[in-house]
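This section describes the prediction task in plain terms. A model, or a person checking by hand, is given the sequence of a single protein chain and must write out its three-dimensional structure as a string of tokens. No templates, partner chains or ligands are provided. The sample shown here is typical of the held-out split.
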Amino acid sequence: MEVTIKVPDMTCDHCKMTIDKALKGVAGVTEVQVLLTEHWVKVSGKSEVNRVIQAIQSAGYTAEEIVNLKP
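The expected answer:
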């Protein structure tokens, strides 16, 4: 799985660290790239997309849309 998710309410380094930590705790996630200035999170691994979205939402942020999804 490779997915890019828009997180519009990610605005600072604390947000970036919180989301990075939350996603690295998801089983199957192997790589996380948080692009603060673009408000995007790119995630790779063998996890389900809905678990990635749930992790972002559980951390208190909006996972607005899935931009790119590859099996």
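For orientation: The CA atoms of residues 7 and 63 lie 5 Å apart.
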